[in-house]
Write a structure and sequence with these properties.
- 3',5'-cyclic AMP 1 binds at residues 283, 292.
- Belongs to the cAMP-dependent kinase regulatory chain family.
- 3',5'-cyclic AMP 2 binds at residues 402, 411.
- The protein is α+β, with helices and mostly antiparallel strands.
- It folds into 3 domains: 14-176, no CATH class; 189-314, Jelly Rolls (Sandwich), CATH 2.60.120.10; 333-449, Sandwich (Jelly Rolls), CATH 2.60.120.
- The chain has 12 helices and 19 strands.
- It has helices at residues 4-23, 28-49, 51-56, 63-66, 186-191, 203-213, 224-233, 309-332, 342-351, 402-406, 428-434, 438-444, and strands spanning 68-70, 75-78, 135-137, 235-239, 244-246, 254-260, 263-267, 270-275, 280-281, 295-298, 302-308, 353-357, 362-364, 372-378, 381-385, 389-394, 399-400, 414-417, 421-427.
- The strands form 5 sheets. Strands 4-11-6-9 form a 4-stranded antiparallel β-sheet. Strands 5-10-7-8 form a 4-stranded antiparallel β-sheet, with no helix packed on it.
- The chain is flat, with a radius of gyration of 35 Å.
């Protein structure tokens, strides 16, 4: 026969696991804390509602509240008990003793037994096994008189009163610092007259900045137009030597690219790094309103290019929104994708990336391992292989590259740009995840069933 307590724990954990699978929370620790805290609140409320009925039959639902005796000196003595955990979510745990008495508390006079209270943290007074009894003088009462309370309310913990209506869900137990960012509505941005700032940069400056940004993780995924808009929005800023450009702990909203000079970085007043021309710093400020992780000080006279978060996010969001609209219209005209729902088409549009090729460029090469599926947005391509020679010409709305992904084969043909070509690409994982019913259509239209080999 299974242990009831063990079975209860198993059932609770099983229910929690189901909730995690259903809700798929981003912060698993916070989710679990909220889950058990809500269960605790419901249980305590239920117990409180049954307290009066339980007392009529001699049951004590809150032993830590009423486990009080009157000694011969006329003082209440809270009996020693097993150590218990003090809830970090509030003060409503009836199994914890709290020092919130209205009257003065009498402490033991045996000094060598006393230990100073240790404050702070959510585990304050958690496991004080040797805690001495606390005494509070009260008036002597007749124990035979049921109309008189055995102890005054002031000698009870907060559980002598009904529980608070709601235990706080969120709490801070020295957890990581949170980050936030402004909420932007792309549809609203579209209706506004906002225009990104444009600074007159020379072609040399634009080229230099583009090279500095091409490997930066924030800018690698931007399409060509968005990159140009971001570069044009950069503002030049000068900092004399020893100027604090950013300070650790401050909220940051600017990203910097160093044009000339050297910048030193300090964490907790200790120098950790230096950067010079072409380097960048403050990337996280473009995404989140988060505290600076380090202090940046100009080690010499420094000239930087700066971009603020709101401008970057509006450019990025507007570009993404425009790309979605463009691709949704484009995908509607591709016959093989007509089986997709509007929602699936929108998800596919968000996953597509744009690539550009010039005349003579080989977009895919026969024999190579295939990683992408291609849709032609504009331009013309020719398809050929060593066995058949020229196979066919592809134009706007045509697609290629699906065979390597459907059959996990090397490329069966080479696709070459006949002029300037723009293609929308979808990676292997996105191809398998987002195309859904369109995959079956692609299989039915497998060109290897005829003389055409893609």
């Amino acid at each position: 026969m299974s242990n009831p307590q063990q079975q209860f724990i198993t059932d609770e954990l099983s229910q929690l696991q189901k909730e995690i699978v259903t809700k798929n929370p981003q912060d698993i620790l916070q989710f679990c804390a909220n889950y058990f805290n809500t269960k605790l609140q419901a249980q305590r409320s239920e117990l409180w509602s049954q307290q009066t009925k339980a007392q009529t039959v001699g049951l004590n639902l809150f032993p830590s509240v009423s486990n009080v005796n009157i000694n011969s000196s006329g003082v209440s003595v809270i009996n020693d008990r097993q150590p218990s955990f003090k809830s970090p979510f509030g003060v409503n745990d009836p199994h914890s003793i709290h020092d919130h008495d209205d009257g003065p508390t009498t402490h033991p006079t045996n000094n060598h037994d006393e230990s100073p209270s240790v404050g702070g943290g959510i585990f304050k007074s958690n496991f004080d096994v040797n805690k001495k009894t606390s005494t509070t003088p009260i008036k002597e009462v007749d124990p035979e008189d049921p109309s008189k309370p055995s102890v005054p309310p002031s000698s009870l913990s907060d559980f002598g009163k009904p529980p608070a209506s709601k235990i706080p869900i969120a709490f801070n137990a020295n957890r990581r610092t949170s980050v936030s960012a402004e909420a932007l509505n792309p549809a609203k941005l579209k209706s506004e007259s906002w225009k990104p700032p444009v600074n007159n940069l020379s072609s040399t400056e634009e080229e230099t900045l583009a090279n500095n940004l091409k490997n930066n993780f924030l800018f690698k995924q931007l399409d060509a137009n968005s990159k140009k808009t971001v570069i044009a929005a950069l503002q030049q800023k000068s900092f004399p030597k020893d100027t604090v450009i950013i300070k650790q702990g401050d909220e940051g909203d600017f990203f910097y690219i160093i044009e000339t000079g050297t910048v030193d970085f300090y964490v907790n007043d200790a120098k950790v790094n230096s950067s010079s021309e072409g380097s960048s710093f403050g990337e996280l400020a473009l995404m989140y309103n988060s505290p600076r992780a380090a202090t940046a000080v100009a080690a010499s006279d420094v000239v930087c290019w700066a971009l603020d978060r709101l401008t970057f996010r509006r450019i990025l969001l507007e570009g993404t929104f425009n790309k979605r609209l463009m691709y949704e219209d484009f995908l509607k005209d591709i016959s093989v994708l007509k089986s997709l729902s509007d929602h699936a088409r929108s998800k596919l549009a968000d996953a597509l990336s744009t690539e550009m090729y010039h005349k003579g460029d080989q977009i895919v090469t026969e024999g190579e391992q295939g990683e992408n599926f291609y849709l032609i947005e504009s331009g013309n391509c020719r398809v050929y292989n060593k066995k058949l020679g020229e196979i066919k010409t592809l134009t706007k709305g045509d697609y290629f590259g699906e065979l390597a992904l459907l059959k996990d084969l090397p490329r069966q043909a080479t696709v070459e740009a006949l002029d300037n070509v723009i293609v929308a690409t979808l990676g292997k994982s996105g191809f398998q995840r987002l195309l859904g019913p369109a995959v079956e259509v692609l299989k039915e239209q497998d060109p290897t069933k005829s003389d055409d080999i893609n």
